[in-house]
Automatic annotation (TrEMBL), chain A:
Gene3D superfamilies: MetI-like. This is Phosphate transport system permease protein PstA. The chain crosses the membrane at residues 20-43, 49-68, 80-104, 143-162, 174-198, 204-221, 253-274, 323-345. Part of the binding-protein-dependent transport system for phosphate; probably responsible for the translocation of the substrate across the membrane. It comes from the Bacteria.
TrEMBL record, chain B:
One of its GO terms (molecular function) is ATP hydrolysis activity. This is Phosphate ABC transporter ATP-binding protein. Signal peptide: none annotated. It holds the Pfam family ABC_tran. One of its GO terms (biological process) is phosphate ion transmembrane transport. Keywords: ATP-binding, Nucleotide-binding, Translocase, Transport.
């Protein structure tokens, strides 16, 4: 290519080479898109994905060609790498944005105060009306109870592994946590179901909580472990050297230092289990009526509600609308949790101000 | 208040690796003893055996005796936590607790060990900060985080934190190695004042510093890499730096090796 000629064209200064104008990436992108559409139209391709693919390849080739000609080989490679990173970013963001877009667009149709405060009690799945109050209530209760069980056990396990665990037992615990991370949610559900069948119990909310807690624990352990490892050993030693017992060192020095990170980890784990459908379907069963008691009787939950609205809709548009609105509520629920977690992390983070 | 340290036949291990071997020495109360020697010769390890911080490291264990005024720190039934209240420590890098204010940092040792009344606590904090020559610089911002101070101030904050619990002995592990000359001078002056009240042991790589601040100096060395470190000699600082009795000490001090 132009490697051999590039130095000759450079200006006398060895520090300043020729460079493409700053608008050139946009110009090349525009040109490639037009050319891509033109080629596709001429060849009679009807898929827009093919158009985008052709435009993308044209863009990469054109960027490399222009840059190699004007700026030299190293800058050309740099521009290619930059373009690839941007392409990957766009490809990754498209599904996310389109998912949120579709959910919001379809979800807002029936999402109103009435929808949030009423149940499906007297509404058939194929008719319009009804709401998700019972599902929100069920979700909050089940996820809340699961968190009450899973988060403390997870955090304490992580403290054991990082602060105390040595030798075989710690290795075994780490191994089982790794195994638990890989448990499919339906298996956790079946595990609790087998216990329920042994005692001849009917579906109830707390059974779902137990399965969700099983799914939550390894996530909490992993994230808390990482956070505890980030606390510098010097802080532990400083505290121990003051004659502070180890348990107080952990409680008063180590945990406060990383409480923000631990909270974020727990919130992410909650976000994960809030969307679980399979164990809830098995253990909580679903219920169109409001059942505020998680310890007796079937309950609803948001993911389960979404699934059941789709599966029982018999093609009814009303059920689809409700499912989308419930999806939007679920996403908002998880999003709010994340924002809360971030706020707590920022509030609790070690202060650096003067 | 200050106590004497009597070490006899002390050997420390990291797992199966022997880090220091058969060290015996006496540290007089109300004096400054400096440890010098090349890197890796076990000065810090030895220092950490003096308040049982060595065993905090996984695999760390100790053989031999460390007497603190006739009481063996490694004897049966001795609680390492109580040992560390008697023998305080200042580390190489300033390590104030990042979640705590300046006040809370100094009060940490007391607060984490028991309950104190607010007024009592602020008296002790003021006294300790004054003792560490930091009071005038921070008295108007005691509620600001300790990590916002400069490196030298942070180190003096750590010294204030260590002396707030009124230990008998203060161990300092290269307390000035991360500091500039002016902060170093401040800390050296402070060491001179603190030795009125405490027994001080300081590890340093800076031989001028050892000559400036210490009454006695111990020289550590190791015969080869991987071999355990040993105490070569301990004597009055003046003698060590003018007329040491061992050739290796003279070589090290005059810069002929290491």
């Amino acid at each position: 290519m132009s490697h051999a000629q590039a130095p000759a064209r450079r200006s006398p200064s060895t520090l300043r080479g020729a460079s493409l104008p700053s608008w050139s990436p946009w110009a090349i992108a525009g040109g490639s898109i037009l050319l891509g559409i033109g080629i596709s139209a001429a060849a009679g391709l009807d898929s827009k994905i093919q158009w985008a693919l052709i435009a993308g390849i044209l863009y990469l080739l054109a960027t490399f060609g222009f840059a190699a000609r004007v700026e030299g080989g190293r800058q050309a490679k740099d521009r290619i790498a930059t373009s690839l990173v941007w392409t990957a970013f766009v490809v990754a963001v498209i599904p996310l944005v389109s998912l949120i877009w579709v959910t919001v667009a379809r979800g807002v149709k029936v999402l109103d105060f009435y929808f949030l405060t009423h149940s499906m009690g007297v509404v058939a799945d194929t008719e319009p009306g009804g709401g998700i109050y019972h599902a929100i209530l069920g979700s909050i209760e089940q996820v809340g109870l699961a968190t009450l069980i899973g988060a403390p056990i997870g955090v304490l396990t992580a403290i054991y592994l990082v602060e105390y665990g040595r030798g075989k037992l710690a290795r075994a615990v780490t191994f089982f946590v790794d195994v638990m991370t890989g448990i499919p949610s339906i298996v956790a559900g079946l595990f609790i179901l087998s216990i329920m069948l042994m005692f001849d119990m009917q579906p109830f909310g707390f059974a779902g909580s137990l399965a969700l807690a099983i799914l939550m624990m390894p996530v909490v352990v992993r994230s808390t472990e990482e956070m505890l490892k980030l606390v510098p050993n010097e802080l532990r030693e400083a505290s121990l050297a003051l004659g502070v017992p180890k348990y107080r060192t952990i409680l008063k020095v180590v945990l406060p230092t990383c409480i923000g990170g631990i909270t974020t980890g727990i919130m992410l784990a909650i976000a994960r289990i809030a969307g679980e459908t399979a164990p809830v379907l098995l253990l909580v069963f679903g219920n169109p009526f409001i059942n505020a008691n998680p310890f007796e009787g079937a309950q609803a939950s948001l993911p389960l509600y979404i699934y059941q609205q789709f599966s029982n809709s018999a093609g009814s548009g009303a059920a689809f609308d409700r499912a989308w609105a419930a999806s939007l509520t679920l996403i908002a629920f998880v999003m709010i949790l994340n924002l809360v977690a971030r706020a707590i992390a920022r509030w609790k983070a070690p202060k650096t101000g003067r | 208040m200050a106590k004497r340290i009597d070490v006899s036949g002390l050997t420390a291990y990291y797992g199966s690796h022997k880090a220091i071997e058969d060290i015996s020495m006496t540290v007089e109360p109300r004096s400054v003893t400096a440890f010098i020697g090349p890197s890796g010769c076990g000065k810090s390890t030895f220092l950490r055996t003096l308040n049982r911080m060595h065993e905090v490291t996984p695999g760390g264990r100790v053989e031999g005796k460390v007497l603190l005024d006739d009481e063996d720190l490694y004897g049966n039934g001795i609680d390492p936590v109580s040992v560390r209240r008697e023998v305080g420590m200042v580390f190489q890098r300033p390590n104030p607790f990042p979640t705590m204010s300046i006040f809370d940092n100094v009060a940490a040792g007391l607060r984490l060990n028991g309950s104190y009344r607010k007024s009592e606590l602020s008296d002790i904090v003021e006294k300790s900060l004054k003792g560490a020559n930091l009071w005038n610089e921070v008295k108007d911002r005691l509620n600001k985080p300790g990590s916002g101070l400069s490196g030298g101030q942070q180190q003096r904050l750590c010294i204030a934190r260590a002396i707030a619990v009124e230990p008998k002995v203060l161990l300092m592990d290269e307390p000035c190695s991360a500091l500039d000359p002016i902060s170093t001078l401040a800390i050296e002056d402070l060491i001179g004042e603190l030795k009125e009240r405490f027994t001080i042991v300081i590890v340093t790589h800076n031989m001028q510093q050892a000559a400036r601040v210490s009454d006695r100096t111990a020289f550590f060395n190791l015969s080869a890499v991987g071999q355990p470190g040993r105490l070569i000699e301990i004597d009055d600082t003046e003698r060590i730096f003018s007329n040491p009795s061992v050739q290796a000490t003279e070589d090290y001090i005059s810069g002929r090796f290491g």
